[in-house]
Amino acid sequence: MPVDEQELHARLQLWRAPGIGTVSFQRLLGCFGAIAHALEASDAELRQAGLKPAALAGLRQLDPLAARADMEWLHQQHNHHILFIDSPGYPLALKNIAGSPPVLFVTGNPQLLQDPQIAMVGTRNPTSGGRENARAFARHLSQSGITITSGMALGIDAESHQGALEADAPTIAVVATGLDIVYPARNRRLAEQIAHQGALVSEFPIGIKPHADNFPRRNRVISGLAVGTLVVEAALRSGSLVTARHAMEQGREVFAIPGSIHNPLAKGCHQLIREGAKLVETATDILEEVAAQLHSYLDNTGTTLTGTRKPQPDHNQSADPDPAPYAPAGDELQVLAALGHDPVPVDQIVMDTGLTPEAVSSMLLVLELQGHVAACGGGHYMRLGPRD
User: Fold this and answer.
1) Are 174 and 285 found together in one domain?
2) Which tens digits make up the pLDDT trace of 207-260?
3) Is residue 307 domain-resident?
4) Residues 224 and 366 in one domain
5) What separation, in Å, do the N-terminal and C-terminal C-alpha atoms of the chain show?
6) Is the pTM of this model over 0.85?
7) For the chain, what is the radius of gyration of the CA atoms?
8) CB 117 within 8 A of CB 111
């Protein structure tokens, strides 16, 4: 539903009230239809709607100007956005998890939140091999049309974001503070790059500083946005494992890169593998595993990876019980024609086809999942099977 200025202020006001969480917010929205109406309701009406005494007391004691900072931030720059759970642009993947945050603050491009994503997480103190793996996996997945999502922490998170940026691809950082605060401070330059090329996301209002309790909450959003979570390096007691547990509970894929039995930062990954996470050695292993989820994602959103509408089925025709193999068509044929049996860089395919880099990357992902092309590393692809 469209949110006018009064309702916008009311929602931001409620989200700052002590004792109001995701359940209370959505219950009041459902009961009253608008949070502005809920704030005008009597104590008896609010109790009848399920608001607990502590939350009711916190709401009544809240400074009426509490949301001023959020409103000022929103109108400060054109790339500042606020999404509510009933907004058309709210990410479907996140909406489908338990405890979806009813409010998202976004700096950057909010449309990226709708894209198919892989979350990448790991230790803040990785080995040199872990850093290299994070960047390499992020680059390959980004070049295949997958958006990398992480938490902008030091270590594996930052390396994953950097790998995506090196591929000239967008990346999403979910943070545990208000978006006016960069944490850790040494990642300020990285945060600026992400805001320019991707999106910074938080459920926390403006001015909220880092607090230990905020990071597990942040982790459920990282996994909730993605079709799967990759753990690169992690100790047995690690916030990365919390993210992986969230992913499992949300019904999403969990991947882990194995390491040396003598490396303490491999023990968390090995534990996840014993619990059912998928062992991966290459980014292609991930792409093969999430192919079905990506197609389900496309079915649910009604879009292709290139952002165009999917053709609607003709319900007057009977369903084919044995559908034909996937056949490339349209611009995909141009991409195939630009490929040979020797590796070709993505930039060359873009030049030869005249298509945008985003469209080429998306089509290469689909063609790779369908077995028509193979990724060769370093942003190069080759064609499989005979040329026409």
Assistant:
1) yes
2) 999 999 999 999 999 999 999 999 999 999 899 999 999 999 999 999 999 999
3) no
4) no
5) 50
6) no
7) 22
8) no
